[in-house]
């Protein structure tokens, strides 16, 4: 995407398309599938360091890896790139939402 194209997107969409946000969703997907990072990389046939960089938001996900995720796990490009949950398989979406809720609950400050 050209920089001028990016400027036409809403702030929300630009934020969702950031490597950091995509990486957060990739980690959520992996965890919902019950896989370790190394297992996900191996299933996709990519170097383990690539997957680590994708999840960490250090590297933008490639079209090929995004397409592999769609083919192998039924996730949508809308979810990966734009953070849209509405077309995900229900069971997968429910597992990811549960992980999100658990993560949010564990990050709340404890009352003393």
From TrEMBL:
Coiled-coil spans in chain: none
Pfam families: HTH_31 (PF13560)
Gene Ontology MF, one: DNA binding
Organism: Meinhardsimonia xiamenensis
Family matches, as InterPro entries: Cro/C1-type_HTH, Lambda_DNA-bd_dom_sf
Domain HTH cro/C1-type span(s) in chain numbering: 26-80
Protein's name according to its UniProt entry: Transcriptional regulator, contains XRE-family HTH domain
Residue spans crossing the bilayer: none
Gene3D superfamilies named among the record's database cross-references: lambda repressor-like DNA-binding domains
